[in-house]
Amino acid sequence: MKKDPGSEIQSLWQLYKDEDDSDARDKLILHYSPLVKYVAGRISANLPQNVDTADLISYGIFGLIDAIEKFELSREIKFETYAIARIKGAIIDELRSLDWVPRSVRARGRQLEKAYIELENKHKRVPTDKEVAKHMGISIDELQDLLAQLSSTSIVALEELWSVGGDKDDKVSLIDTIEDTSTQDPSVMFEFTELKDVLAKAIDKLPEREKMIIALYYYEGLTLREIGEVLGVTESRVSQLHTKAILRLKTKLRTAKPVMPSK
What we know:
Blueprint: H1 5-19, H2 22-44, H3 53-70, H4 79-98, H5 103-123, H6 129-136, H7 140-150, H8 157-161, H9 186-204, H10 208-219, H11 224-231, H12 235-254
Helix pairs in contact: 1-2, 2-3, 2-4, 3-4, 5-6, 5-7, 5-12, 7-12, 9-12, 10-12, 11-12
């Protein structure tokens, strides 16, 4: 009679967590390794062709190992859900450290963010592409080209926006906002609630099409190509709209920081 694969994996988890068994750890890494390939494949679809998927997989393996070491069996979430967030974070952190985007493009991106902030403060609404282009002293075509160049920098997306302090390591991922019933820290729960509230309000103020792209990409797990099919537009157009949405969210969160409880 064959063993139940689920119970066998559960036994490996117990063996590793209770006895720190290295063999059990290695078997867990091997079992969950397809998650790394899955995440790397989805991320590579939105990166320049010169970025090797094999490199992304090697970065993601470290995220998987970190997830296995830190995962608490008492948490009421599936390991796969937890691990995907950690794997994606490891890949993004490594890509950010390599920084394949030219400094000039990043500088223009900061100028674009500034333009969104100034125009939204001035008009009390989301500015049009024509208004943004005029404010920056460029043509509509140049603005679209800039958005296309910036699209590869927006892979960090919502994960990068959940910053809770000045330190680059002081951040909250979406998975971290899922309640862990084994702990109850009022200040942390307050912090998470505030962050979710600020981000939800920021997303709600996005134009409908950008809001839909955020929902389909981050919550439904569709690729940019699949979203393009849903909306009836090209993948490159979806990429531009996604970039605009991330830029808008950045500007809104920077001007609406949540209030943290006093110590």
